[in-house]
Write a structure and sequence with these properties.
This protein is 21% helix and 33% strand. With 187 residues, the protein is an alpha+beta fold. The strands form four sheets. Strands 3, 6, 8, 9, 10, 11 and 12 form a seven-stranded mixed sheet that branches. A three-stranded mixed sheet has the order 5-4-7, with helices on one face. Strands 1-2 form a two-stranded antiparallel ribbon. The longest helix has 20 residues.
């Protein structure tokens, strides 16, 4: 759900928005977006991905993974704040993790589609993440049980690679990680 643009939001104003509750807040290109809390299936898929990546990182300390809600502040002027479902920050970029949020460009962002967020995740956030220089972006579709992977090349995302439920997902950002997607999508 997008609100009417009345004025540009500041970081300080954004930080006064209520935490928790029935909505998650994001500001992209000066517009405030509110999304309802996700469904149990959405959360189960997020949890399965978080568990796969988190377990891998315990044995391979390449960085940290964070689950929503965890704001990523790409810039303060203009204010660009997203709340991806999962965020991976490598050790090389650990300095962007602050006590309140992530201030800068993470290495990998994951969005699990919901009916209320699908168009935004596929267009608005894809554009924001590409412009901001996020090296890798996964769009997880619970309905089709697919993961579309976008990798930055020459400052642009190449066409997305699609992985299906019977495939295994990996990432050059996490060498050695393999995620059987049959374990991600609940029956």
């Amino acid at each position: 759900m997008k609100t009417a643009r009345i004025k540009e939001w500041t970081y300080e104003e954004f930080m006064t928005l209520p935490e928790g509750g029935p909505y998650r807040f994001e500001i992209i290109d000066g517009e405030l977006f509110m999304t309802p809390s996700p469904t149990p299936r959405h959360q189960k898929i997020c949890g399965n991905l978080f568990l796969s990546i988190g377990t891998f990182l315990r044995s391979n300390p390449l960085g940290e993974v964070f689950a929503a809600p965890c704001d990523v502040v790409f810039s303060r002027t203009p204010l660009q704040v997203a709340d991806p479902d999962l965020v991976f920050v490598s050790k090389a970029h650990a300095f962007i993790v602050t006590e309140k949020n992530i201030q800068g460009v993470p290495d990998l962002l994951v969005e699990v589609l919901s009916p209320s967020t699908a168009a935004n995740d596929r267009r608005v956030k894809l554009s924001l993440y590409e412009r901001s220089g996020v090296p890798e972006y996964w769009i997880v579709d619970p309905q089709t049980e697919t993961v579309e992977v976008f990798r930055l090349s020459g400052g642009r995302y190449a066409d997305g690679m699609e992985f299906r439920k019977e495939d295994t997902l990996d990432s050059p950002l996490l060498p050695g990680l393999t995620i059987p997607l049959s374990e991600v999508f609940p029956a």
